[in-house]
């Protein structure tokens, strides 16, 4: 999904509306053809207008699906057309070519099936519901199907959230990061949220709400902490996304198979019903519809653990399951570490326990259809958590995130150049009490390389060699730290670890592959005068990257000097 996927912003006056969940804006130009004639409400059922299948849910929702390519061409709620902007419909990726589209009614359910090469896509409506249930089965790479986008007409839900750019046309990076006149930045990438943090995205006016309720993401990639765009807005229109696979800052290979259901839901202004959320949605009514790749509840299992010991209770713990075919996750109970992950496809998975976002334990587990695999208490070895190592000093705790460092929270919803960001330069003094808050969450070769850390050592400490550790969460353009001590000792340039090869630090994500760099510093590097500060210089090195905030860089997790 490049910046060209979003409509060109046009400067115009806008207004802010009440919001629920994730909120933003929308828009559209007039659409031609069958879109120009919204369907009218009737009893539950469907008709064929020659170009589209027209489905009336028997509630307040009428929608049309193109018989040619499976596009959603009309979306009328309480008589108002919501679908479309810029002459474009709602659809998989940027739309499919000529497809085989069919429809059938089974009692209180209507299913529209779209076949395009090896891709299968489905729309389902239920009598009396203002919802559309969607599934997408991508079998291989022959079809580009990384998202479903609901395109929404202009003027219906306007606001000024971080992932909108209604108020500006000034781009500062590529064609998808914008700067307002007041110095704040906007981009469709700035959702703030990890996958595990949200159940739905959308907008509300207070009297009408339009939402996408996400699927369980079992066929997506990146795990529970993955961040990607969820919606966008300009004065020309808006989009809501279900991301099936997103290559930007991606840490895993693409998974294939049936993803869904995800739900387009209308409300009278409130949030969508929690019964639609991943983890609570039940679809036994879809068991007999013949959806390709569909596995009902009876064909799935559960993985549970009675507890986890060795946790640092100051942090949340998450348990993830992953193999090449599927991924799942669940939270460990704060009191004892109990967890239960349901709806798991049969198979053998790598089970990983995360302290915040740092992997601290891993094992293999097998899930079976119709059963529960129960694990005895998991004991995290003390050595698995780097925070347990004895340190002379430590900047931040080891969590797999830059949380706590300067500008860390802001960077999930703003560009580093944003006026709200504190200065990216500035040195750090151990013992000042502001070591973590003064240390920038990101280091770039062209922005703040050469940051200095001042610290004193006792005579005994200065007489010994020590190990310095620098943990990172991702890197751009192979940026990695090389260190210099007291301008007398310089480390070797470390090899770059495997990291995503796309933008990350400038588009709202610090999530890559956690990696720890270690440096063995000899005693000869330290100052022997204990009243003087030793000086650690951290440089960012790389032969790649461009300039400024797109120069080689890295996100910091923690830094410590071990005893």
UniProtKB/TrEMBL annotation:
Pfam families assigned: CBM-like, fn3_3, RhgB_N
Stored InterPro entries: Carb-bd-like_fold (IPR013784), Gal_mutarotase_sf_dom (IPR011013), Galactose-bd-like_sf (IPR008979), GH-type_carb-bd (IPR014718), RG-lyase_II (IPR029413), RG-lyase_III (IPR029411), Rhamnogalacturonase_B (IPR016590), RhgB_N (IPR015364)
MF terms in GO: carbohydrate binding; rhamnogalacturonan endolyase activity
Keyword terms: Cell wall biogenesis/degradation, Disulfide bond, Lyase, Secreted, Signal
Domain Rhamnogalacturonan lyase: residue ranges: 300-375, 392-561
PROSITE patterns: TAT (PS51318)
Biological process according to GO: cell wall organization; pectin catabolic process
GO terms for cellular component: extracellular region
Name of the protein described by the UniProt record: rhamnogalacturonan endolyase
Highest classification ranks of the organism: Bacteria, Bacillati, Actinomycetota, Actinomycetes, Kitasatosporales
């Amino acid at each position: 999904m490049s910046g060209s996927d979003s409509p060109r912003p046009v400067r115009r006056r806008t207004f802010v509306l009440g919001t629920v969940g994730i909120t933003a804006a929308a828009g559209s130009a007039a659409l031609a053809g069958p879109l120009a004639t919204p369907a009218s409400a009737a009893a539950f059922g469907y008709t064929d207008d020659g170009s589209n299948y027209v489905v009336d849910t028997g509630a307040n929702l009428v929608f049309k699906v193109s018989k040619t390519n499976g596009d959603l061409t009309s979306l009328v709620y309480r008589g108002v057309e919501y679908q479309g902007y810029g002459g474009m419909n709602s659809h998989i990726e940027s739309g499919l070519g000529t497809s085989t589209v069919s429809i059938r009614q089974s009692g209180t359910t209507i299913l529209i099936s779209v076949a395009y090469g090896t891709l299968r896509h489905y729309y389902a409506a239920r009598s009396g519901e203002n919802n559309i249930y969607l599934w997408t089965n991508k079998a291989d790479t022959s079809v580009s199907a990384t998202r479903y986008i609901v395109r929404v007409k202009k003027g219906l839900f306007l606001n000024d959230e971080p992932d909108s750019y209604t108020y500006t046309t000034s781009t500062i990076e590529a064609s998808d990061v914008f700067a307002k006149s007041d110095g704040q930045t906007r981009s469709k990438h700035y959702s703030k949220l990890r996958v595990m943090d949200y159940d739905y995205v959308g907008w509300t006016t207070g009297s009408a709400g339009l939402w996408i309720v996400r699927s369980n993401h079992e066929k997506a990639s990146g795990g529970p902490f993955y961040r990607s765009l969820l919606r966008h807005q300009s004065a020309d229109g808006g989009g809501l996304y279900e991301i099936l696979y997103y290559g930007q800052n991606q840490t895993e290979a693409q998974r294939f198979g049936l993803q869904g259901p995800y739900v387009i839901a209308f409300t009278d202004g409130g949030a969508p019903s929690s019964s639609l959320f991943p983890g609570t949605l039940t679809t036994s009514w879809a068991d007999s519809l013949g959806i390709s790749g569909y596995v009902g509840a009876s064909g799935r299992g559960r993985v549970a653990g009675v507890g986890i010991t060795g946790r640092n209770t100051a942090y949340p713990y998450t348990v993830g399951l992953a193999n090449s075919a599927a991924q799942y996750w669940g939270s460990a109970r704060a009191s004892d570490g109990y967890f239960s992950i349901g709806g798991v496809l049969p198979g053998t998975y790598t089970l990983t326990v995360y302290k915040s976002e740092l992997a601290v334990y891993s094992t293999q587990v097998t899930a079976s259809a119709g059963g529960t695999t129960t694990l005895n208490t998991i004991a995290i070895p003390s050595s698995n958590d780097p925070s347990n190592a004895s340190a002379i000093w430590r900047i931040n705790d080891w969590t797999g995130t830059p949380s706590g460092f300067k500008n860390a929270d802001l960077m999930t919803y703003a560009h580093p150049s944003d006026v709200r960001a504190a200065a990216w330069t500035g040195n750090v003094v151990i013992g000042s009490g502001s070591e973590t808050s003064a240390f920038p969450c990101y280091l770039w070769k062209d922005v703040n390389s050469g940051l200095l850390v001042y610290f004193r050592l006792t005579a005994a400490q200065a007489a010994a060699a020590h190990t310095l550790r620098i943990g990172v969460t991702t890197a751009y353009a192979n940026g990695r730290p090389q260190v210099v001590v007291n301008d007398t000792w310089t480390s070797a340039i470390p090899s770059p670890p495997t990291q995503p090869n796309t933008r990350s630090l400038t588009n709202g994500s610090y999530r890559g592959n956690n990696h720890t760099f270690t440096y063995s510093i000899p005693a000869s590097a330290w100052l022997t005068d204990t009243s003087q500060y030793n000086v650690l210089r951290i440089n960012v090195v790389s032969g790649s990257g461009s300039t400024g905030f797109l120069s080689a860089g890295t996100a910091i997790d923690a830094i410590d000097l071990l005893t």
